[in-house]
Amino acid sequence: MDINTIIARRVRELRDQQKLSLDVLAKRSGVSRSNISLIERAESSPTAAALDKLAVGLGVSLASLFEDSTPAAVASPVSRLAEQVCWTDPASGYMRRNLSPGLPSPLQLVEVAFPAGQTVRYDSFHREVDIQQQVWILAGEMRIHVGEQAWDLQTGDCLSMKLDQPITFHNPGVALARYLVALCKE
Predict the structure, then answer these.
(1) Beta-strand relationship, 167-170 and 107-114
(2) What's the pTM value of the predicted model, to 2 decimals?
């Protein structure tokens, strides 16, 4: 299934579960009603920033927007590489792959490939659910700003943060950076 179709279905499911109108989700997320409608019809390739705003408006993690909606009763405890959902941010070119199986879990794992010289900013941080995140650099380097603090991370470094402040990811290097993100709802 196409990634934009997966995102469309998931955003609509989450909005329906919470009985949110397009207008209410637009107000809660800061994403326009028309943009949400385009996303839900899989007629738009949303940016990472727009998806993060929608996740905040829906009270879920960003990784939740990429989850398969297969019922837990038929979901496998194994996530096969060929079945893992990949998405590329059209603005920065960063690619994220959901690694976690489809079974309900408070922990989600995501692999990211982040192009050299690129930056992604997440300004949405007023979440209804507390989410703790760790970023483990597998290759390359990243500069991560959390609020007013910045960390320069190299291969093997791991940063822990709560998703309650603006966060900026930047690859200052000349090569692709790869890292693992572990997200946990507190």
Answers:
(1) unpaired
(2) 0.86
